[in-house]
Write a structure and sequence with these properties.
The chain has about 120 residues and is of the alpha/beta class. The chain is built from four helices and four strands, in the order E-H-E-H-H-E-H-E.
Length: about 120
């Protein structure tokens, strides 16, 4: 396992959700959370995984959830962009806001799969 550059502070994970199966995007975000903790040295309490936020906000519109995500981002130090972020309106808005706030922007390594795929049975 290659140890990657350390990331300090509160890190918000951003990537595509809409259009993917819930199990697929949750697995991708969980993998990113583990990468931040194990390979980047981020304390587990400092990783913001929006999958968990979305569960608590069921029933709200996507637009309302995005507004809340952007407010949460204002309290972070960095954003970690999954390698499918460009295909997501919400992730593009989160990245734009992170840059406006002057947050550090990190990207999932290119050698990671764009989408997790189910194994064939």
């Amino acid at each position: 396992m290659v140890k990657r550059e350390q990331i300090d502070g509160i890190v918000y994970i951003s990537g595509k959700m809409r259009g993917l199966k819930k199990s697929t995007y949750e697995a991708h975000f969980r993998k990113a959370t583990n990468e931040l903790i194990i390979q980047r040295g981020v304390h587990p309490s400092m990783v913001i995984n929006p999958c968990y936020i979305g569960r608590a906000l069921q029933g709200l519109s996507d637009e309302a959830i995005l507004k809340l995500d952007l407010m949460i981002l204002e309290n972070c130090d960095a954003i970690y962009m999954l390698n499918n972020w460009e295909d997501s309106h919400g992730a593009n808005e989160e990245k734009k806001r992170a840059e406006e706030l002057g947050l550090a922007v990190y990207y999932e390594p290119e050698d990671e799969p764009l989408e997790l795929r189910r194994s064939k049975r």
